[in-house]
Amino acid sequence: MTTTPRLAPEPTHGTARRRAPWVRSLVALLHHKVAVAGLVVLAVLVVCALFGEQLAPYPANAVDISRALQPPSTAHPFGTDDLGRDVMSRVILAASVSLQVSVVSVTIALVVGVLLGLVAGYFGGWPDTVVMRVADVMFAFPVMLLAIAIVAVLGPGLTTAMIAIGVVYVPIFARVTRASVLSVREEPYVRAAVSLGAHPGRVIVRHVLPNVSAPIIVQTSLSLAFAILSEAALSFLGLGVQPPAPSWGRMLFDAKAFLDQAWWMGVFPGLAVFVTVLALNLVGDALRDVLDVRKTVND
Amino acid sequence: MPALSVQDLHVRIKDAQILRGVSWSVEHGQTLGIVGESGSGKSMTVLAATGLVGPPLAQVTGRAVLGAPHSSGRSSGGPDGPASATLPDGGGQDLLTLSPAGRRAVRGRRIGFVFQDPATSLNPILDVERQLTEGLEEHLGMTRRAARGRALELLEMVGIPDPERRLRAYPHELSGGMRQRVMIAIALSCDPDVLIADEATTALDVTIQAQIIDAVRDLQERLGTAVVWISHDLGVVGGLADEVVVLYGGQVVEQADVLTLFAQRSHPYTEGLFASRPRLGSAGGHLTTIPGSPPDPRSLPAGCVFYDRCTLRSDPRCATHRPELVPLAPGHLVRSFCATPVRDAPLDPEETA
Fold first, then answer.
1. Would strands B59-66 and B93-94 be described as parallel, antiparallel, or unpaired?
2. Which of A78, A267, B105, B164 is the most buried (most CB within 10 A)?
């Protein structure tokens, strides 16, 4: 026993890296080629969504019947539709609507679903039973059918589409979150926090949520892609964005009648949907790689 | 008044009797060692007493009284003196009847915990500072700045070099011994009256184990903390504890101060634990074991719970009656029909190292 109050110090080890975990994840993501490709596409889309008015060569609803159904040319790179509107301008301007719908609806699903999943997973018991059985019932319906039913009740429109898509994705987030919470809840550091006298709310926010965030982030990026598709589908069916506002889904519907005369009316909005969904899926897959604990734990 | 005393604690989980009337107490500045093999109920006594295990999973009865806050010997408090905070009632409180909010106020503030595995007891994605200051902010209402200052002090106190840098480190950047020092710093952060160490050195190698034990002993001397040290390792307990409780089958089978227990151990189970320690100088030989395994808590034998494994079994009541915990000498309790008053078992100096 020493007489000095302080103990013999531990031997020092090599310099500790001081990057926060999220910074490390971001750096890893930027080294992931596929992810960078997806991020570039998404960046272009975001620019289109924010500055569409300035970028689009023509206003969205500049009708000019004399120039109807023109094939792609230098004046109209994507051609014109049956009312003589410029397809490229409408594709650019529709990006804002699509991104808005997918971001808002996924945010709804994320907030509600994660909250329900945390409560169900952490506390168990009857809250768990109620949340998960309701989720099971919702899973029993095909996603689109459920969304259509919600729109049918609330009436078509942009806001309704957001709510409908959001509600449909709530059980997915609830289930993903709950599954991770169930395993994290048993971790010694969670028990240690409880033994320190931490309030359940603090334990959940500080210790559980950050440790279940990886699958939730991945699910978010994949859900954004599905939400874009769902919005296009709802608009295609006339249940989403109402004409004459531009929307990829609505443009595809309009193009259906002219497929044999004007392929460009359908191909370009279709490509926009395809590229957006692909980019989001690529980023989602990359995030799954980057955030995989089993891969990064030893580096 | 003891810092923490557990009285007649019973724990049932479904049809399993995990604890059957366990009592012990620990005074301020003293160390109580709880020993026994896996499944003897060592951890359960502290988990149940502090409400970390309880309804609906387990039925807990008995009392776990936390004594009045200890006032003397507090020299470690930060500049604004977290040690000066006292509870309004000033007397003992039964932890088992407290509300959930009351229990949270006690945990971490008046009772600190150190668990077995420092690798998993720290949150992997929070830096040391966040984890150290959590209790300070929650219990003592410190600001981030004040808590940070105290955190530095704590890291220094538990012997971590370059605490400024360590505050920003993540658990995976620290060695096992260092992580356990951080755990001890967290447990001591709010200047608790009782420190509970549940197999705190079991996951560490022997040299680190010795450092950690020294750290705890040293801090206890300076802070006057009562320590409950749970271990299966009699050597560790012998070097640290003032009083020792031996648990078997959910009951105390022998209890005495450490010197008495080592020199005059009387219960055949305690004797068995002694005989099965690895010792220097007996290389190559097999370790002695206690034949058999602990009783199934769902179907305990009618007689003495140690009957099946006992080497004595000399009393006709052994198979049919359950022995009571009776004093063999003042302060020395034994639960056996066959215990001899004093066994001549000279203390081997190497054994208590």
1. antiparallel
2. A78
* B21-58 tens-digit pLDDT: 999 999 999 999 999 888 888 889 999 998 888 887 88
Beta strands B31-35; B226-231: pairing state: parallel
**B46 near A CB under 8 A:** no
Query: Which residues, in sequence order, are CB contacts of A2 under 8 Å at separation 6+?
Result: A8, B214, B218
Does A184 reside within a domain? yes
Q: Where are the beta strands (DSSP E) in A170-294?
A: none
In a domain, residue A17? The reply is no
- Does residue A144 sit within a domain? yes
Whole-number Å distance between alpha carbons of A127 and A249: 39
Counting the structural domains of chain A, the total is 1
Q: Is residue B196 part of a domain?
A: no
Nearest partner of B48 among B298, B247, B329, B312, judged by Cα = B247
Q: Which residues of A touch B105 (CB under 8 A)?
A: 197
Q: Which band of pLDDT confidence, cut at 50, 70 and 90, is reported for residue B236?
A: confident
Asked whether the beta carbons of residue A211 and residue B181 sit closer than 8 angstroms, the reply is: no
Residue B99 lies in a domain: no
Q: Indicate the number of domains in chain B.
A: 1
Closest chain B residue by Cα to residue A14: B173
Which residues does chain A have within 8 Å of residue B174's beta carbon, measured at their own beta carbons? 13, 16
| Rounded Cα gap, residues B38 and B294, in angstroms | 8
Is B190 inside any structural domain? no
Q: For A141-165, how does the pLDDT look when each residue is reduced to its tens digit (9 = 90+)?
A: 888 899 999 998 998 888 999 999 9
A114: containing domain:
32-296
Residues in A closer than 8 angstroms to B165, CB to CB, are 16
> Is A10 within the bounds of a domain?
no
